[in-house]
Amino acid sequence: MANSNLVSVIVPVYNVKPYLRECFDSICRQSYRNIEIILVDDGSTDGSGELCDVLAASDDRTTVLHKENGGLSDARNAGLRIAQGDWISFVDSDDYISPVFIEVLFNACRDTGCQISAVPFGKPFNDGDACPLVESLDPVAPAKALPSPDVQRLMLYQTLDTGAQWRLYAKAPLGIDPFPKGLYYEDLASVYKIIHKVDSVAVVDCRELYAYRMRSNSIIRQEYRHIKGESALIIADRLYQDICNWYPDLSKAAASRCFSVCRMVYAQIPMAGVSESDLKDRDDLWNNLSTFRLPVLKDFEARKRERLAAFFACCGRRIFSVFCSACRLSGLMQ
């Protein structure tokens, strides 16, 4: 039976042995004590699965689920299916959280009556660096309840990130298997749909609650694969249709977000030595970018980087490709 005050913290685990203990310890140290920790070993091959069992033995609030590898979405969904709490938090296993992370977000929901609370983004840090986080409630400003359409606008213009991990959710709006299996950018594909199910979201303007590790071998930063292009196109098409249907006045914002994800993926495809499927991906992505380039260029609410990219896209495919190649080599425009 679910517990109305219990927070289920779901941690997908896949080949993160060097980081897992730090993540786990940060969850165990939460000032909000009524939690269960669900470690989902997604078929790890580096000893992370065995470490999950060792860590679970040190805190009786912990459950370990071992499963075949199915990807991040599948691991989150699997953890959600066994969660006992009425409140859900997702923490990535190579990150760590402030000792008041859960308490802040839980209080935000309680004080505002919202079913979801969020921070705008985690605090990014490079692998190997330290990332100080807040240690108490004192520096954290009170939450502000924002209507869901306003939250959608902020997410589409990327002022509020779409990451599933910097939020606390009432279980009901998540539904069953909310994250799409087999796609990259699963948070972009799912979080806007979850937000659409609630009236408002409690936003806490404090990034120093969640340490977001930047790794060169993370999923998003890996070499280009066909599934990336396919995912970007599927998600962009669905997101644009949904947002225009639900919130017609956010069509420009939706165009900006769709342009952004397709631009980012297009820039990852090497200029030479690619397969026929990669060439097709490039063609399909370019067609998508061509649809949105002019609206984004004219949208003064869009991020400067998107409007800059849209300007070069309006100059033609060859110039845009050179621009993207330069950005990829320099690490800009991610």
Task: Describe the protein's architecture and organization.
Helix 1 (17-28) links the parallel strand 1 and strand 2 (35-42). The protein has an 8-stranded mixed sheet, sandwiched between helices. Strands 5-11-7 form a 3-stranded mixed sheet. It has helices spanning 17-28, 48-56, 72-82, 101-112, 148-156, 171-174, 186-196, 226-246, 251-268, 276-297, 304-314, 317-330; strands at residues 3-13, 35-42, 62-67, 85-90, 96-97, 116-118, 123-126, 144-147, 167-170, 200-203, 210-214. It starts with a strand and ends with a helix. The protein has 334 residues and is α/β, with parallel strands linked by helices. The radius of gyration is 20 Å and the shape is globular. It has 12 helices and 11 strands.
Please give a handful of descriptors for the protein shown.
334 residues; eight-stranded mixed beta sheet; 12 helices; 11 strands; globular
Summarize the structure.
This protein has 334 residues and is an alpha/beta fold.
How is this fold's topology laid out?
Blueprint: E1 3-13, H1 17-28, E2 35-42, H2 48-56, E3 62-67, H3 72-82, E4 85-90, E5 96-97, H4 101-112, E6 116-118, E7 123-126, E8 144-147, H5 148-156, E9 167-170, H6 171-174, H7 186-196, E10 200-203, E11 210-214, H8 226-246, H9 251-268, H10 276-297, H11 304-314, H12 317-330
Parallel strand pairs: 1-2, 1-4, 2-3, 6-10, 7-11
Antiparallel strand pairs: 4-9, 5-11, 6-9, 8-10
